[in-house]
Structures are given as structure tokens and as C-alpha cells.
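Quick review question:
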């Protein structure tokens, strides 16, 4: 019997594969994965940078020196410049143009998720997610 690899090996491998797939798919549409995640958060309503940081915390890179971690603010600039997100007194909100782009991207992301889980029984998938 071959050596069984620990769960950490598989989690890192799958994470890297998912990240690479999403990055290349979204790059084709002119957005980064973090920008997609921010659009997803803002599609549910306006949010501050702090609220967005909390929502996407697992995807923000910690700083090398641990004094300045990555922030949503660093990923909002292009979204604001493109007119997809507007900055307001109470935070940021998705614009009509951004909402249209988000809807188109949601279709691409949905197809990507289907590919990633192809061949995995729904009950097995739900069990795995619940366990993790």
C-alpha cells in the first residue's frame, strides 16, 4: 500500500489548483480573484473596507513582516476606476455597470465551480464541506 499523504498536503494542493484555475479564468475577463470576491461582497449591499476585509479574510495575504497585512483597499482601485464600484461616505457600493459585470462573471464562476466538482457526489461534497 502506498503512503497516505496527510490532509494538509491535499488541502494545499487543492487550494493551489483552485486558485490557479480561478485566477486564469477571471484574468480572461479582466479581473483578479480578489476583485471578484469584493464584487461578490458588494453585490449583497454596501460595505466598508473593514467589512470587506472580514468577508474575504482567508484570501488576503498576510504581510511578510506581519505588521501590514493585505487589505481590500488595495484591490478596489481598478474597480472604482472602471466604474464598477463607487466610493461613498459610508463605504463602497457596486454600481449598475458593476452589477452587470458581476452577473456575467457569476456565470463564468459558476461554470468553473461545476468543473471543479465534476464527478463528486453532492452528498460527498456536502459532507466534506461540513467536516472542514
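Suggested answer, residue by residue:
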Amino acid at each position: 500500500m502506498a503512503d497516505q499523504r496527510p490532509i494538509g498536503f491535499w488541502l494545499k494542493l487543492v487550494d493551489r489548483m483552485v486558485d490557479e484555475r480561478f485566477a486564469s479564468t477571471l484574468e480572461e475577463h479582466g479581473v483578479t480573484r480578489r476583485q471578484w470576491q469584493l464584487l461578490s461582497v458588494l453585490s449583497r449591499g454596501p460595505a466598508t473596507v473593514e467589512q470587506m476585509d472580514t468577508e474575504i479574510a482567508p484570501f488576503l495575504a498576510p504581510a511578510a513582516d506581519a505588521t501590514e497585512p493585505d487589505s481590500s483597499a488595495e484591490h478596489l482601485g481598478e474597480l472604482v476606476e472602471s466604474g464598477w464600484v463607487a466610493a461613498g461616505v459610508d463605504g463602497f457600493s457596486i454600481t449598475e455597470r458593476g452589477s452587470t459585470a458581476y452577473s456575467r462573471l457569476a456565470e463564468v464562476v459558476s461554470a468553473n465551480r461545476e468543473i471543479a466538482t465534476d464527478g463528486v457526489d453532492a452528498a460527498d461534497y456536502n459532507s466534506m464541506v461540513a467536516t472542514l
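Why it works: Residues 49 and 73 are 6 Å apart (CA to CA). The longest helix spans residues 7-27.
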